[in-house]
Amino acid sequence: MPDTNLHPTVDSGTVAAPFGALEGTHWIESLHDGTKVLIRPLGPQDREREADFIKRLSPDARRLRFLGTFKQASPALIDQLMDVDYRHQMAFVALAHDGGQLREVGVSRYSEAGSDKRCECAVAVADEWQHRGLGVLLMRHLIAIARKNGYKQMFSVDAAENEPMRVLGEYLGFRRRIDPDDAAQVIHTLAL
């Protein structure tokens, strides 16, 4: 289990790592429009932010992210999303100031998929923060830590109609194919 001190002083955007495979514990990143966001590993203190983030997603964004519809995330879903050990299950959150509060505006995560050095990934960006480069930043951090943690392949199962994921996947080098078990879904795969 990593050191839980996630608030060291920032020095040029990165700090010494309490996570063996991470270079730094948090990063101040600039989006395409110059807006700054804080990206760091998801921690226990983020539980309410995570629930609020999912609640604020549009119904369409929730459907594309979770491949299903619901109005509010169940406590069991929030438990599952908060279950990170920084090696086999990892998540990065993007935080920004909004109306005097620090809000979650994006999240990327992976979870180990079996024992063959594969991990399944997902990314979600708040509707009003899309098309600004945040998904790319979140996924680059996730890809880097997956590589450092020894994973050889990352994949994502998505709705075939999910155009933003198709564009993001192509940009990051993921290969796309139709899910053999469900033609309404695609599988994006990245060799690490």
Describe the protein's architecture and organization.
The chain is an alpha+beta fold and 192 residues long. It has one domain (27-191): Aminopeptidase, CATH 3.40.630. 27% of the residues lie in helices and 32% in strands. The protein is built from five helices and eight strands. The protein has helices at residues 47-56, 59-66, 75-82, 134-148, 163-172; strands at residues 27-30, 36-41, 89-98, 101-112, 118-125, 153-159, 175-179, 182-191. It has an eight-stranded mixed β-sheet, sandwiched between helices. A hairpin with a 2-residue loop joins strand 7 and strand 8. The model is unreliable at 1-21 (pLDDT under 50).
Question: What's the short story on this structure?
Answer:
The chain contains 5 helices and 8 strands. It is an alpha+beta fold and 192 residues long. The longest helix is centred in the C-terminal third of the chain and has 15 residues, at 134-148.
Stated plainly, the CATH topology is called Aminopeptidase
Q: What's the total count of β strands?
A: 8
CATH level 1 class label: Alpha Beta
Uncertain spans: 1-21
Domain module count: 1
Features:
192 residues; alpha+beta; Aminopeptidase; globular; 27% helix
Topology of this structure?
Layout: E1 27-30, E2 36-41, H1 47-56, H2 59-66, H3 75-82, E3 89-98, E4 101-112, E5 118-125, H4 134-148, E6 153-159, H5 163-172, E7 175-179, E8 182-191
